[in-house]
Design brief:
Elements: E1 4-6, E2 20-23, E3 36-41, E4 47-52, E5 59-63, H1 65-68, E6 74-76, H2 78-84, E7 92-99, E8 109-119, E9 124-127, E10 139-140
Antiparallel strand pairs: 1-6, 2-3, 3-4, 4-5, 5-7, 7-8, 8-9, 8-10
Length: 160
């Protein structure tokens, strides 16, 4: 199989000051009616909102998995690469969907087993099943690992 290995890709390639439109040729699991989303920066670096254009109340919190697990890896198969129009790991980023707790004693969890992979250049996204069975559907994630942005928005550029 000629797959794209993503073992050093970081979501820091996502612009942190603008929304990016993302089309999902296949809908996110459980959300068949929504296929077009806006990827927007959240108040923490490495965290984004994914908001449906069709139904704005359908919104997900996505995070860079490499912040909490630097050795995280995912392989994209031929069908996934074709759906994303990806030819190399540089074309795509992987983000995990976070589940926010219902109460104060429950942890935030991330779905490391089925990340959302986005080709930023093509504006295409796909939720894929990670072939690495050691990855969890509900892995605890500390939001403290993601630094706050300046005023809840992108940190200002610095010279240097």
């Amino acid at each position: 199989m000629n797959s794209i290995a993503m073992d050093a890709v970081s979501a820091h390639a996502v612009p942190d000051d603008v929304a990016i439109d993302v089309q999902f040729p296949m809908p996110l699991w459980g959300i068949p009616h929504a296929r077009t989303y806006a990827l927007r920066p959240a108040s923490r670096e490495g965290v984004w909102w994914l908001q449906s254009h069709e139904e704005p109340v359908t919104t997900f919190v996505l995070a860079d998995p490499f912040v909490v697990e630097p050795s995280y890896a995912i392989d994209l198969g031929e069908k996934e690469k074709a759906s994303l129009r990806a030819t190399s790991a540089d074309d795509v980023i992987a983000l995990v969907i976070l589940t926010l707790p219902a109460g104060p004693v429950q942890p935030v969890t991330g779905n490391f087993r089925a990340p959302v992979v986005i080709n930023l250049r093509a504006g295409l996204g796909l939720q894929v099943v990670n072939r690495d069975e050691s990855q969890h559907l509900t892995r605890p994630v500390s939001l403290g690992a993601y630094p706050l942005r300046h005023d809840g928005m992108a940190a200002p550029a610095t010279d240097g």
